[in-house]
Amino acid sequence: MSTPNIFAFMLHPIDLSDISRKFPLADRVPKGLLEQLIKFAPPVKTSHITGLKSPYGEAEGWFVGCTLTSEQMLKMPTPVVLKKIIQTGRLAEKLGAKILGLGAMTAVVGDAGITVAKELDIAVTTGNSYTVYTALEGVKKAAEMMDIDLNTAQVLVLGATGAIGAIAARMMARECRYLTLVARDESKLEGLAQQILYETGLVCPITRDARKALRQADIIITVTSSSQTVIEPEDLKPGSVVCDVARPRDVSHRVAEMRDDVLVIEGGLVEVPGEVDFGLNFGYPPGLALACMAETMMLALEGRFEDYTLGRNLTLEQVEETGRLAKKHGFRLAGFRSFERPVPEEKILAIKKRAREKQLELLHA
Known about the structure:
Elements: E1 5-11, H1 16-22, H2 31-39, E2 44-54, E3 57-65, H3 70-75, H4 78-94, E4 99-102, H5 114-119, E5 123-125, H6 128-145, E6 154-158, H7 163-172, E7 178-182, H8 186-200, E8 206-207, H9 210-216, E9 219-222, E10 241-244, H10 253-258, E11 263-265, E12 268-271, E13 274-277, E14 288-290, H11 291-302, H12 316-329, E15 332-338, E16 341-343, H13 345-364
Parallel strand pairs: 1-3, 1-4, 4-5, 6-7, 6-9, 7-8, 9-10, 10-11
Antiparallel strand pairs: 2-3, 2-13, 12-14, 12-15, 15-16
Helix pairs in contact: 6-11, 6-12, 11-12
């Protein structure tokens, strides 16, 4: 009997409330003490994933938990955080995994998976290639739901000269007619604009003035490497769609609080093939996963046990290949997330309605 294709995917608590959901008694522990306790806690075998099946393969896996919150990962010394991630990766090895996906902040810390891959005896991926693919797929779907026509829309890529930004810009250039590129380095922007002109024939304006460009954009893909938020409520026009692929986030929480007329998404939820049981409720409908999880799963189904998306230099070829693998194995975009919560269709309809009201107000002002 052949050994099944086994994968693992690394989770971590976004904040302390995630710990309390899993362990209700944690609510009684003072916040400071709980932070200290989880800092020294061993990695956790969170759940067994079964039922992943496509016409071309089957796989099973494990969620493994790295016991640090997002805030701790940002504040603690990088070598200390990487040590915890590697320890959690060793748990995945013991569970028989042949490939490990790094989720949320574990994919961002340090050199984005390169050090972790060197220290482990199994393949590692951050899932960022399929994350980019689904983000762009999601942008197009969100634009359609918000009645934005790609032929007439002003599309903006903020942070366009970074690895993800450049790929996003090159892929969007095939889909739209008006694309503006924004970044701090003008010479790199010029180089990217030339590349896009050569590849697609599209002439892209470039600018370093993010504020002005944001106010004119209908669709924004934002992927800066800023440690601070760069998009505030006053920067956006009513009815715009913002896809925030950056980690840490580019879009301020204030946008969610103050702008009920714009749609902010941070990548898609993916329908997974087979009768998958994650053994864990992470707040999404059954059978749905994040794109980074889905990349790990599709590589396992394909029997591709090799380091895949690592570091910050993604390639167009890898992003497109994940799209082909997704289609082959039956992974499909199923919904949106915003500020780490699912966005139901009725919320999108309410945003569209409010956007129309605001647009009319502005017309009559």
